[in-house]
């Protein structure tokens, strides 16, 4: 039987995998809304995220707990996280609409490396030999990709990679529960967006002839935002930063599949090699317990003989 701690880690890992798959597939969601301005989509995403998170927090009776546990440090952490997720959302939506999904994929290759490095350097987490080999291989692969793939838009993958990596690291610092933290971040973003809407030419007006389906998709963008982030936040509270970073490599692999199958983007040899290295690293990480068990059994047999 699994111990309670093992169950917690398994649930955290499964939540992290599902969150990354959903985030990777969400670029298809935004493709249907290419006729709408990126800022407008970001605005709807922010405001409907507030509504979705508020409904969950109120329904679960956590609103009073949120106000009781809120302090200056928590507010600062979630305000910084909100800024980073706004950058990530905005660039990701733009890249999805304009067919720059490969750049998104590269950005999400950078993010987990950043998360793992922070886990080792800041949180003093240790890496097993298997994970160290996987991380070094991935780091070399991504570095080679950045050097030998000048055709990719550097602004897109750096903005996505750094903002998502920073967000993941900040979410590890909070003691708020999943949806309370998401609600706080969404409210901060809403306060940031409202003055921009009031004192600029930007608006939330939707273009004419958008159609019922696309309008319905826009009104569901709060759930599209909240569900993966909730799964990710649940995962980050149950597994280590290094484990979280390694699981994040699921996202760029999903994005790679979307870019080639849905967007029909051409994949360079360099990117293909890097993704194979990443997949091998992930496979090594997943199979680590089995490999350790086999090696341990073999050693015991040798000692017995």
UniProtKB/TrEMBL annotation:
Keyword hit for Transmembrane: yes
Residue stretches spanning the membrane: 12-32, 44-63, 75-94, 106-123, 130-148, 154-170, 182-200, 212-232, 244-263, 269-291
Keywords: Membrane, Transmembrane, Transmembrane helix
Superkingdom of the organism of origin: Bacteria
Name the UniProt record assigns to this protein: RarD protein
UniProt organism field: Pseudomonas prosekii
């Amino acid at each position: 039987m699994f111990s309670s701690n093992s169950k917690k880690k398994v649930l955290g890992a499964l939540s992290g995998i599902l969150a990354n798959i959903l985030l990777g597939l969400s670029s298809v969601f935004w493709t249907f809304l290419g006729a709408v301005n990126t800022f407008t989509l970001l605005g709807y995403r922010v405001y409907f995220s507030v509504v979705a998170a508020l409904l969950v927090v109120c329904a679960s009776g956590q609103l009073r707990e949120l106000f009781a546990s809120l302090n200056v440090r928590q507010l600062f952490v979630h305000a910084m996280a909100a800024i980073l997720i706004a950058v990530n959302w905005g660039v990701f939506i733009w890249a999805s609409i304009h067919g720059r999904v490969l750049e998104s994929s590269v950005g999400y290759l950078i993010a987990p490396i950043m998360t793992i490095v922070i886990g080792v350097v800041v949180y003093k987490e240790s890496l097993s030999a298997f994970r160290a080999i996987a991380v070094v291989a991935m780091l070399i692969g991504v570095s080679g990709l950045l050097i030998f793939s000048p055709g990719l838009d550097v602004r897109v993958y750096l903005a996505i990679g750094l903002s998502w990596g920073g967000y993941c690291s900040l979410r590890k610092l909070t003691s708020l529960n999943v949806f309370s933290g998401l609600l706080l971040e969404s409210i901060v973003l809403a306060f940031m967006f409202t003055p921009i809407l009031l004192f600029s030419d930007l608006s939330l007006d939707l273009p004419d002839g958008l159609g019922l389906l696309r309008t319905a998709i826009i009104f569901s963008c709060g759930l599209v935002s909240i569900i993966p982030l909730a799964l990710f936040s649940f995962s980050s509270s149950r597994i280590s930063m290094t484990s979280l970073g390694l699981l994040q490599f699921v996202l760029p692999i999903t994005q790679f599949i979307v870019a080639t199958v849905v967007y029909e983007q051409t994949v360079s040899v360099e990117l293909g090699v890097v993704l194979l290295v990443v997949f091998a690293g992930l496979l090594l990480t997943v199979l680590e317990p089995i490999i350790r068990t086999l090696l341990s059994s073999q050693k015991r047999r040798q000692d017995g003989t």
